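User: Just a sanity check before I run the rest of the batch. Below are the structure tokens for the first item. I only need the designed sequence back.
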């Protein structure tokens, strides 16, 4: 079948083709900033996150938090599950991060992680991110890399969580500074995230970088108008 398909399209099975997935790009990350990477499935959003991760590896002043690599919490009721990650936190601290992640229902807060749904466990990981940064006493820039951000959540919940992330990141424009980098196919999160930088990744090497307030490329936050190709957007 490989030979048949190769013949149909005039390809040699031994041929090799170099493909540029992400063109040369300069991206500045700053405290209080949200970077939103969107595009079709398979377009290269995860590759961009990996490149950012690799570029930050040599910077001691950056503390990278990989959202998907956050370890599972203790299997205790959520209000007691942060002891190892954030030992000095009191109950009000824990309630605050759980609320930011949309886990402020009393019955949910008394459940163990193993008793949560997939969407609730995703939000718990977000609460762990908030707690990890609060517990990390450093002047380093915390860079959160979140692939498929909000993908497992229903769209209303995803928008609420995105808005909370925007507010939380904005509050951390000073020490401890936070830059949140989110990648997802769901462009309905554009408006609640209010990104400072928008990266639109197309299939192949196509990519556009928009910066809020930039004279070269600027954008508003009317997501529906963006899909129609009009509204507040300029390139």
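Assistant: Here's the designed sequence for the first item:
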């Amino acid at each position: 079948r490989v030979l048949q398909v190769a013949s149909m399209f005039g390809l040699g099975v031994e041929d090799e083709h170099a493909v540029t997935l992400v063109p040369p790009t300069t991206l500045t990350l700053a405290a209080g900033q949200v970077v939103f990477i969107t595009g079709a499935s398979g377009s290269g959003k995860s590759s961009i996150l990996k490149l950012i991760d690799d570029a930050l590896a040599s910077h001691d002043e950056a503390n990278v938090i990989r959202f998907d690599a956050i370890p599972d919490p203790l299997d205790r009721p959520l209000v007691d599950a942060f002891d190892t990650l954030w030992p000095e936190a009191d109950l009000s601290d824990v309630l605050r991060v759980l609320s930011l992640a949309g886990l402020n229902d009393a019955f949910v807060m008394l459940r163990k992680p193993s008793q949560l749904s997939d969407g609730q466990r995703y939000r718990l990981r977000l609460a762990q991110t908030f707690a990890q940064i609060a517990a990390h006493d450093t002047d380093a820039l915390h860079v959160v890399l979140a692939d498929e951000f909000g993908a497992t959540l229903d769209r209303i919940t995803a928008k609420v969580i995105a808005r909370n992330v925007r507010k939380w990141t904005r509050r951390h424009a000073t020490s401890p500074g936070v830059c949140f980098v989110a990648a997802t196919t769901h462009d309905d999160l554009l408006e609640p995230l209010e990104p400072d930088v928008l990266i639109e990744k197309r299939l192949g090497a196509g990519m556009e970088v928009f910066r809020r307030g930039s004279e070269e490329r600027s954008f508003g936050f009317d997501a529906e108008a963006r899909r129609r190709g009009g509204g507040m957007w300029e390139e």
